[in-house]
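re: that complex we talked abt at group meeting.

here r the seqs, copy pasted straight from the sheet so there may be weird spacing, ignore it
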Amino acid sequence: MTATMQPKSEAAEAPRRGRRTPGAGQNARPRGRGLEFGHWWWALPGIALVVAIHYVATGIGGFFAFTNWTGIGSFKITGWANFEAIFKDTTKVGALSNTLFLAFGSVLLGNIAGLVIALGLNRVLKTRYILRTLFFMPVVLSPLATAYIWKYIFDFDGPLNALLTAIGAGDQAKPWLADPQWAIWTVLVVLVWSSTGFAMVIFMAGLAGVPVEVEEAAAIDGANLWQRFRNVTLPAIRPAVAIATTLGIVQGLRVFDPIMALTGGGPAGATETLATQVYKQAFALGNFGGGAALALVLAAIILIFAVLQQRLTRSNPED
Amino acid sequence: MSAIGNTYVLFLHISRILVSDRGHGSRIISTTKSERLDMTQHRRYSGLKAGALAVPTIAALVLTGCSASTGSNASSSGSQEFSLSFATSNTIESPFQVLAEKYMETNPNVKITFNPQPNDSYDQTLRTQLQAGNASDIVVTSPGSGQGRSILPLAEAGFLEPLDDSAKELLPEGSASSFGPEGKIFGQATAITVSALVANEVAVKEAGEFPADFAALEQQCKSLESSGKSLFALAGAAPPNTGLTAMSLAASRVYAEDPQWNDKRAANEVTFAGSDGWKSALEAVNTLKDAGCFQKGAAGAGFDAITKGLASGTSLAGFIPATSWKQLQSAAAGSEFGVRALPAEKGSGNDYVYASANYAFSINAASKNKDAAKAFLAWAAEPEQTKAFAEIDGALPVSGIDSYDFEGGAYKNVGDLIKDGKYGPLPNSQWPNSAVYDALATGVQGIITGQKTPDQVLQAMDAAWGQ
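got the structure back, here u go
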């Protein structure tokens, strides 16, 4: 990962590495070999599998978006009827706005939190390695398993309400995941918690490539902490920001398992997203055509935002 | 699902950056002649190594690919072997498996392969397997058309084998149309499942009498609430439970008065939104909520709240399939669970419960072991076996219900209703698709949280009916 985030800083790193281990040539050799290793045709089985599983299957699934197939038996081609139904249905329009809210909410908060943690754990702190591991842990853990732990925390008889009662705020106790106003915020908290670690790692990789000399020079020139961050660090980690936000949005737009485990889309559709709707329509309610149409809409939205995001955060036109 | 996607996107990024990094690399690293030689050798060696890894990997892929396509037909030569698919939702051994094991004991030459599936993905797995032609020889289905595992759509799509007379004899009265189109039968009923209330009888006694009508019920809710208990345990976040609650409320209000209501709905003579009975049933959800009949935090509760509430006695009863009495009784030592009808609005004379065959054995039309499968079904249809199955399942036997001894059992409080014929099939089994039930189930949660009105829910059900 480190290598991916800091193409420019590699050059700056190389001499320092050389000093640590004698013989810079030896040290650099595996890199050279690694880059020229292999032949393109070795990837053929992989390419064939990706095309067959990813693109052919998706293409066939996309075809069913224009039919009234129920998942079994025969079907008729119904044209754009499934898409019309989506935009007429308030549940699905609600799911769309929930999806956007959760995606952008989790990207914004998760990235800010990730950046703050990455900055804090970048150099000075002694316990930074342990803390990094702890903050990264949510990314490694199964989203489904952690969602069940969160579900327990937000349960009516769970620790959160117990805490509220203990500090005398018992009247605030509520079934968080079944409260029409609070449920979506509760889901957002869980999403931010689980996405922060990933953003942190990307930012940390980016920060490792920020030359200390430039920061020191800025400090000598009298730049304060904020100015150093704004004018030195942030421009240097721009590629990291681009990747963290793009991945975050793609991930956020199709979030499925935590919601399914936390609320199942409830209460009464208040936390329904496009991904949970796709699953429900296609697999639970036997409306495969409708589900496929919804999946196409979701894919289009993800594509639009991913491209938009890439363009907005592109550091220079050569990239 | 998302993890794979993530890795894929990450891979794209990494490969892009690696490609652009190549330029930097070559500028920094100058290779000597000996190094280049070393590289060639290394490359050759790595090629061997990678080949050594790739060969078994590809072989494994090819082998699994082959075995996946042939595995299910491995037993095609012998007819004394077949497979059985059923849904499981807890760790207790499935009654279907117990019955099949008994068959293997009495017929040592028969080998049955069990394919248990988690209940929440059973419908989808079953449909996918039927479609792909690798479903089990015998599959457990449900009568009617309201679910993914329902007989009617599966039979119409040609996935099920028509059954013979022994299955016809087990048809519960008046339910032939749920077991197959055009007079044919595609499922053999396994047991009669009552859907009403399951009550903790010890807790009911402690609280006094079980209410006889709806007004007394509201009263008892209030007094129980003041003592920190609740009359009902509700899993508000679990659609199967909220749906069953609403249907139970509709039993005396809609189906007791008009058992053919579903047929009329199918003929578009009536609608949910236009039905006073249905409206009253959903308004009763609000009444129950306001009277404090549900436990605290019911709107967000899962099934565990029902199990915990009923087993500990903090809730008196729950709207769950009656067969759960047996599991609850075995889980809570010293307890006694029984099945009760929800008190009707107009007094006990109008009580009505749902009792129908909710599960059936069907034979996969693509099965190569139909004879063995049919022999098993014929055996399972014998009165001795239907009785034994009902006992294992905690249900009522599918045959000989008239001579069934209700006294002293878990069903003693609903025995009279069943003998008097005051019961009907679970309504959603006759609804045309599962979206209608979904609209009802999520709608009830919406009524409890205040997001929806009964009218909105009923309109959504009508809309789903026409889908």
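couple things i noticed - Residues 161 and 173 of chain A are 5 Å apart (CA to CA). Residues 90-313 of chain A form a domain with the MetI-like fold fold (CATH 1.10.3720.10).
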